[in-house]
Structures are given as C-alpha cells and as structure tokens.
Design a protein that fits this description.
The complex is a heterodimer of chains A (229) and B (122). Chain A has 229 residues and is an all-alpha fold. Helix content of chain A is 69%, strand content 1%. Chain A is elongated, with a radius of gyration of 24 Å. Chain B has 6 helices and 1 strand. Chains A and B meet through strand 1, helix 1, helix 2, helix 4 and helix 7 of A and strand 1, helix 1, helix 2, helix 3 and helix 4 of B. Strand 1 of chain A pairs antiparallel with strand 1 of chain B.
Chain lengths: 229, 122
C-alpha cells in the first residue's frame, strides 16, 4: 500500500485510496488537459496559466496605448507645413522592405516556439537569434528613416504632424527594442540553463509580445504610410 | 503533515511531488493543436503576398475601393497573425475574450474621440 498524505495548505494531494490510486490528484490532472495548450505553468482556478493570462491582459491594455497614439496621429496628420509632409517624406519601397523584415521575424519567432515545443532547444536558440537580428534590422531601418526625415527638416516639435508621427513610431520602436532584449535574454538563459520552470511557456510568452509588436506595425504601416492624408 | 512512502511511488505520485519535472516541457498531445512548421511558412507567404498587394494598391488608382481594400487587407493580416502565430485560434477562449475586449474598447473609445473632433467629416 502506498500512502501519500500532503499538508492541507499545499493543496496538492490529500486523498489516497487503499488501492494506491491518487483520486483527487488524478481528477485535477484530468481537468488540466481540457484546455489543450493551457495546461502548463502555474494555474488559476480556471485551469489556465497565470503567466499567459497576465500576458494577454497586458496585450489587451497595450491596444489602448497604441489606439491612443494612432488616433492622435490620424487627427494631426494634416497639420504640417507645405514643404515637409508625408507626400515629400515617405519612402514606401523602403518602409515596405522594413515591414517585410518584421513580418518574417514573426515567422522565425513562431518557429522558435515550435522548436521548443519539440524539445529542440538548439534550433529554438537559433530561431530566437534570427528573430532578434531581424528585429535589429527593422530598428536600424527606423533609425535611418528618422535621421533622413530630420535632415529633410522634420524636427520633433516642428508641427503637430511631426510630434504625433515620431511619438507613435518611436513608441513602437521602443517596444521592438524591448522585444530584442527579451529575445536575447531568453537565448542566454536557455544556453545557461537558467530557466527553471516551463521553457516552452517562457519562449511562448516572449513570442506573444513579439507578435503583438508585429501586429501593431501591420496597423501603422497601413494607416500611417499607405493611406494618404 | 506530509508522509510519503518513497519505496512504492507511482509515476503519478512522483509528478505530484515534483510538479516542475513534468511541466518542464509542453505535453506532446498539446503540440497536435498547433500547425506544423510547413503550415507556418505557408501562412508567412500568404502574409507576404497580402503585403505586396497592399503596396501595389498604393501605386495604382483603385478609386473609391482603395481605402476599404487597404483596411480589409490590414484586418486580414491582423487576424492571421493573432489567430495562427499567437495561437489564439487554438487556445482557450478566455484569452480571446481578454485580448478582443481590450481591442474593441480601444477602437470604440478612439472612434468616439475622433468623432468628437469631426475627423470623419474632414
């Protein structure tokens, strides 16, 4: 006979029948699987991962931040001088190439998540590094674009258009920069074995943030660059 | 009180005693819910093609359907990334509710804000 009696405060196992079946625990684990992919990490009473729940809540709140910035830009996009406006500044082929780079970084990110789910840590680190590199390339493109605009006479405080444009794209760029730091930190932590919990979930959370950054750029690219003022 | 007969542990009991050991990797059955790498590449190609159409549309005169077409392609790309790359299609619906609540709230608040500034009249 096997007796497993745990402390009542630890809420893990408290009932073991004489046949050796851990009834309460088996029931709990059976419940864990109903949510498909949600059964790892620390769980709430909903049977979902706390970390994932918090990340989606955070991303939902980020919609409000970027919604405000995009709306402000839309409102002020015509408030510029005749010489320095979107028609004179936008370089659509260049920005399209930048957008393509960021879009492909979403693919490499999802391949990293797929690799870690297959327990292929080496390829996961590789895809995370490629994602960070593509993110760096996008950021370099944005710095080049800002520098070009500034040289052509579009300062941050020159007009409502310039202030709202730089604030919106600058905030997005800051999110990309934070994403790159998260990606490289994850690569380092995986290499050194510093991730003690669920590695799959850790990479997936970084992935969710990265894809969100890509999704925001999908909106910015269309609303700011492609739709004429 | 905690009493364990270590000599007669079943696999299930070991899992209970060391939850991290089991949760170190995603369960194999969960992987079946997600698309394969090949599928992800196909999705990325679709996204790239939509982007190419968006850029092409900005160079040709589509008349009154120009802006609706661009907005439609933007929404399609958004839904594809969120649904497939962020796994919202395969995950628990609570995550979908959390995200879309924030999104719909944002769109609602800012459309009203833009209406008050008569943005759509100009």
């Amino acid at each position: 006979m096997s007796d497993v009696v745990k402390d009542p405060e630890s809420d893990a196992v408290d009932v073991v029948d004489p046949a050796g079946e851990v009834a309460a625990d088996r029931g709990a684990h059976a419940g864990d699987h109903h949510g498909g992919h949600d059964d790892h990490g620390h769980h709430t009473s909903l049977g979902l991962s706390n970390v994932k729940l918090a990340m989606w809540l955070f991303l939902g709140s980020e919609c409000l931040l970027f919604g405000g910035l995009i709306s402000t830009y839309m409102l002020y996009r015509n408030r510029h001088s005749d010489e320095v406006g979107p028609d004179q500044l936008w370089d659509i082929p260049f920005t399209s190439a930048s957008s393509f780079v960021l879009l492909m970084s979403s693919l490499t990110m999802v391949l990293a998540v797929s690799a870690i789910n297959r327990r292929d840590e080496r390829n996961c680190r590789l895809w995370l590094t490629v994602t960070a590199t593509l993110g760096g390339l996008f950021l370099a493109g944005q710095v080049y674009e800002f520098t070009t605009f500034y040289r052509e006479g579009l300062g941050y405080t020159d007009s409502l258009f310039s202030s709202s444009f730089y604030t919106l794209t600058g905030f997005h760029g800051a999110h990309v920069a934070i994403g790159i730091i998260m990606l490289l930190s994850t690569v380092g932590m995986l290499a050194k074995g510093r991730i003690t919990g669920d590695k799959g979930e850790t990479v997936e959370m970084v992935g969710l943030y990265w894809h969100f950054v890509d999704v925001v750029w999908i909106l910015i690219f269309t609303l700011v660059y492609l739709i004429p003022a | 009180m905690s009493t364990v007969d270590a000599g007669d542990e079943t696999e299930l009991e070991r899992e209970v005693l060391d939850p991290e050991q089991e949760h170190d990797w995603v369960h194999d059955e969960d992987e079946a819910h997600h698309p394969s790498d090949k599928k992800y590449i196909q999705i990325a190609i679709i996204l790239a093609v939509i982007t190419a159409f968006e850029v092409a549309a900005s160079y040709v005169d589509l008349g009154p359907i120009f802006i609706p077409a661009l907005l439609g392609m933007m929404v399609a790309k958004f839904l594809i990334v969120v649904g497939f790359f962020m796994h919202l299609r395969f995950d628990n619906k609570i995550f979908t509710w959390l995200f879309y609540t924030g999104l719909i709230l944002a769109v609602g608040v800012y459309v009203v804000a833009l209406l008050t500034f008569q943005f759509f009249n100009s």
